[in-house]
Amino acid sequence: MTDENATKPETAEADVKGLTRAQIRRMKRFDNPWQNPKLIWGLSMLLGIIALGVVGRMLWDTDMVFTGSGIPRQGPVGVENLRGQVGTWAHPLGTDVTGKDILALLIVGAPNSLYVGMLASLIGMSIGIFLGFSAGFIRGRLDDVIRVGSDVMITIPPLLILVVFQAAYGDISLTVMAILIACFVWQSPTRLIRAQVLSMRESGYVQMARLSGASTWHIMFREMLPNLVPYLFGSFIANVTTSIVTAVGLEVLGLGPQRVPTLGRVIYDAINSGALIQNLWWWWGIPTLLLAVMFIGLLLVNLGLDEVSNPRLRRL
Amino acid sequence: MGRIPLSYLTNRVFTLFLTVFVAATLIWIIPRLSPIDPIDVMLGRMAAGGGTIENSEAILQQLRESFGLDQPLIVQYFLYIVNSFTLDFGLSTASFPTPVSSMIGYALPWTLGLMFISLIITFVIGNLLGALMVWEHTPRLWKVAIPAAMVFTSIPPILSGLLLMYVFSTQLRWLPLSGPYGLNVEPGWTFAFINSVLYHGFLPAMSIVVVTFGFWALGMRGLMITVQGEDYTTLAKAKGLKPRYILYRYMIRNAILPQITAFALKIGLLVAGQVLVERIFAYPGMGKLLYDAILTQDYPVIQGVSFVIILMTAIAVFLVDLIYPLIDPRIRHGG
Questions:
Q1: Within a domain: residue A21?
Q2: Nearest alpha-carbon partner for A178 in A226, A130, A125
Q3: Does A285 contact B317 at a Cβ distance shorter than 8 Å?
């Protein structure tokens, strides 16, 4: 400690409370729950992937996703392949067995995976909000139907029904795949919201609203929904993960969109062409790592949101 | 031990049947709406293999009859539902007169074996690590390492499978790349065969374990925090029992029960993940069967495999729902 530090006003304040400056910074940070390190890290990972898609399209030629854009089986910069060719800056992440540029595949494919996940989850969430509120608030026969329906559907693994669908129909677009996945991710938000609505409907402010003659619609969406926002966010992110896992699973089985590059499709091609044995690690490894970053980012956002909405989980 | 009320039981049985019924119906309807005719696909394959086909009209008619496609749709549907519930899925179109049920019968033990082993390993490791995250006597290094390892929780097992395969099979060459057992052993109940199966099954099981243990660990952590504050834990400490004894006999034993219900929520995703792991490791289970069927557009096999996996999942959920009140008397059924 030098004298300079001691004279600064912040430390003087710190001494009064008997806390170090680091502790004060920490206290301040935790005062604002949204400045959660997990949330920030997770969001920056996801934003990084979106940035790869946006900035990549401007700086890199995405036409190189097509066959024969470069020399086949070329390694990333400075990496020698089995034929002794050293990778160049023309294809910084190397090429696959048909000469597609891996970087271009990532730039086009990664946002596609995220898009499918977000869209499927958004549709599933909307269905879940609607059904959950209807079941929990209106009750009666409708509640029974929705409850049994979600119990039944939550057991069925979406991947298998979608495999049957895609095997029968062949090629589909990204949006159709997202809508299909959405048919299987509405159950958990429905159950979650139903349970919350059931516990909230007898609370004071809801009864107050009912007594003042507010419409059912108003109570459901203006009074109760805002209180569910943290749960909804958590459920949304969890569903994005499930949707992307399902989408990647379909793509790795060789189903899913055939003409649009997706990360799962790249991995499928790599496994099918024996990339593991030929030691073409950049071909399957880089998309795998990018997907891993995407999933870790989603997990961190989810954990961060948990801590934001549930202060007991925060550690000081 | 609590007794299960009849109303609860009928409720669960009803849900089980409805689940299987809905799944079977979806699996039946979806291909019927498709413009692709499986018989055309099969005939195309025959044409590609043998050049010209004589009497193609008669063959077509014969095939339609053998698959029951000449019946009215409603009859087909009822026959299908009855057959599905008796596990008769007809004949495979790709390897033609083989019944689908015998193909599934061969693949099922591999899938179940891999699933049980990986589930048990994950459950033990996950719950132990979750408990150690909360326990006050855990070494500091572990307290840092466990949460760091949990980052892998969200990754689907196919990605971890690829990475592990690369490191341990192609680079280090410690473990075999694919297949259920070595080429030099005869299947049978011999030591060499079982050894070979375990050696080949290690990597697929590990690729599932490394990405699923975190789910159990997170759940266990939450439950342990609750148990830690209970009076009986404090009393056990006050009595001067050894910390390790308190951990196993007082804390984990009480915290672990609700974890069993988590099975019901997770099992669908686990099954789907394992299907993909089998596909990359060329493990001869349901996943590989499904993948091969997709490649050859073998609809009866695709339907059969999907149905059996959904049936297994539904039964597992049903059993968890049923067993849970028996082992945890604190749970009362509302009916």
A1: no
A2: A125
A3: no
Q: Report the residue of A144, A152, A293 to disrupt the B interface, i.e. the one with the largest count of B CBs within 10 Å.
A: A152
> What CATH number has the domain spanning B103-287?
1.10.3720.10
Note the Cα B72 to chain centre separation in Å.
Answer: 35
Contacts B306 to A, Cβ<8 Å: 160-161, 163-164
Instruction: Evaluate whether residue A5 is within a structural domain.
Output: no
**Where is B8: in which H helix or E strand?**
helix B6-33
Report the gap between the CA of A291 and the closest CA in chain B (Å). 8
Residue B153 near chain A (CB below 8 Å): yes
Residue for token digits 């943290």? Answer: A230
Cα–Cα distance for residue pair A298/A42, rounded to 1 Å: 6
Looking at chain B, the number of H-run helices and the number of E-run strands are: 14, 0
Query: What is the span of the domain harbouring residue A256?
Result: 37-313
Number of structural domains found in chain A: 1
Q: Residue A222: inside a domain, yes or no? A: yes
All structural domains of chain B with their residue ranges:
103-287
- CA–CA distance, A210 with A188 (Å, rounded to integer): 28
Query: What SS3 class is residue A231?
Result: helix
Q: pLDDT digit string (tens) for A214-258?
A: 888 888 888 888 888 877 888 898 889 889 988 988 888 888 888
B81 closest CA partner among B253, B267, B303: B303
Task: Indicate whether A8 belongs to any domain.
Answer: no
pLDDT tens string B282-294: 888 888 888 888 8
- Residue A216 is part of a domain; what is its CATH number? 1.10.3720.10
Using an 8 Å CB-CB cutoff, list chain A residues near B319: none
Distance CA A44, CA A38 (A): 10
**Is A295 in Cβ contact with B156 (below 8 Å)?**
yes
Residues B133, B126: contact at Cβ < 8 Å?
no
